[in-house]
Amino acid sequence: MQQFGLGFGQEIETLALGAHQSDEQSNDAVQFQPNFIEDDDAIAVFKALSQQIEWRQESLWIAGKERQVPRLVAWYGDTEAEYRYSGKLHTPIPWIRPLAMLKERIEAEVGSDFNSVLCNLYRDGKDSMGWHADDEKELGKDPVIASLSLGQERSFHLKHKTVPKLKHKMTLTSGSLLVMKGTTQQNWLHQVPKETHITQPRINLTFRKIMT
Ligand SMILES: O=C(O)CCC(=O)C(=O)O
Ligand SMILES: [Fe+2]
């Protein structure tokens, strides 16, 4: 039943986020697996998801003005996994096969289970996601968030919330899996900046567990 050959047993890089000595409580951890899905399979998965996901243009009210979110989004998951983000309550769309299969593979790899996935389509380099932490209370205290990237590679930035010199830049390549866990969301912000020279699309899936 393995439609996409997801790579197992590959090298996993652990990014030492630079926890500072004074803070013994923190356990910031980011792991990166560049070739979780092999190149050809990543292209096939990208195509399937760009067609099958019900992409939506959402908007936000900022300072009294309605603004379109600079990317397309969709929220899939178990029925009870309702999630508030960008100020709105999102009821999940029921799982579709390719997302359910990816979820199972990623659960096996990461050793955590997920009940939902936020899908983002960055149509080109003008699409982006601003600085934020995935620290909504629905995600629980120290959430494990598994982020799969497909298509155009994009920069991903991390910066510490209180220690300005602590920052990291990574490139999220097609087929890569980034796992953020421990106290990462308590202590760090992340973003996908605009890169206006980029013309090609990227899909990012963040698998999450909503506490119900
Ligand atoms: O697109 C990405 O790599 C990050 C997405 C993200 O941070 C999120 O969905 O919360
Ligand atoms: Fe995020």
Automatic annotation (TrEMBL):
PROSITE patterns the UniProt entry points to: FE2OG_OXY
Matches recorded under SUPFAM superfamilies: Clavaminate synthase-like (SSF51197)
Entry GO MF terms: dioxygenase activity
Keyword match Oxidoreductase: yes
Keyword set, alphabetical order: Dioxygenase, Oxidoreductase
InterPro entries: AlkB-like (IPR027450), AlkB-like_sf (IPR037151), ALKBH3 (IPR032854), Oxoglu/Fe-dep_dioxygenase_dom (IPR005123)
Residue ranges occupied by any Fe2OG dioxygenase domain in the UniProt entry: 113-211
Gene3D superfamilies: Alpha-ketoglutarate-dependent dioxygenase AlkB-like
Keyword Oxidoreductase included in the entry's annotation: yes
Protein name per its UniProtKB record: Alpha-ketoglutarate-dependent dioxygenase AlkB
Organism: Kangiella marina
Organism taxonomic ancestry: Bacteria, Pseudomonadati, Pseudomonadota, Gammaproteobacteria, Kangiellales
